[in-house]
Amino acid sequence: MRHRRRPAAKKSHGALWSIIYIDLMTQIMAFFVIVWSVEHGARVTQTPSLGTGVGMGDQTARMVDLPGDVLFASGQTQLASDGKAILDRLFGDADSGVLSFDQGGLAQRKLVIHGHTDDVGVKDANFLLGYQRAWAVYQEIRKQSPKDVPDHVILCTHADNTPQKPVAADTPKPDADQARAKNRRITIEDLVVANKPAEGK
Description:
Elements: H1 8-39, E1 45-46, E2 59-67, H2 68-71, H3 81-91, E3 107-116, H4 123-142, E4 153-158, H5 173-183, E5 185-194
Parallel strand pairs: 3-4
Antiparallel strand pairs: 1-2, 2-5, 3-5
C-alpha cells in the first residue's frame, strides 16, 4: 500500500520560514529606528527596561531640561508667557517630526514629561506641584497636535531634588539657592519603546 506524504510537514516548514522572515524584518526595522534616533540629534542613552522592550530595548532619543523658574512664576502652575514661547519653539514646527509618533508598527514613541520640584516645603505638596506643572506643559504641547499627543504622553512628578545632589544643611545660602533653582525644572524625554509581540507569535 502506498503511503501519501502528509502536507502538515510542508506547512510547518513554511511556518518556520515565516518566523525567520518576520524576525529578520524586525531586526532590520530596529536598526533603522536606532539610526533615526542618532541622526535626529540628541544623545542616545540606554534606559532601564520597562518590561515592554523586545530586541532593541528602550531608547531615549532626546532629553531636554527646561528651567522651572523660566516656565513658571514662583509657586505657580500656570505657564508664564516665556514658558509658552519656549514650548512653541520646541514643538510648534510641524516639519520637525518631534510629534510624529508613527514608527511603522515596530516601536512606539512616548513623550515623558517630568515635573521636578526642590526639597523645600511639604513633600506631598511638592508631589502635587510637580504633577500640575507637568500637566500644564502637556496641555501646551497638546495644542500643537491634539489628535496624537494624548496616546503618547506619560506624566511623572518628582517631589524632591532628584536626580541632582541633595542640598546639605550647612550649604551656604547662595549655593543652596542655586542648587534648588536647578532642581526646579521640567524634563521632556523622547522615548522609543519597542512593541511587545502578540501572544502566541
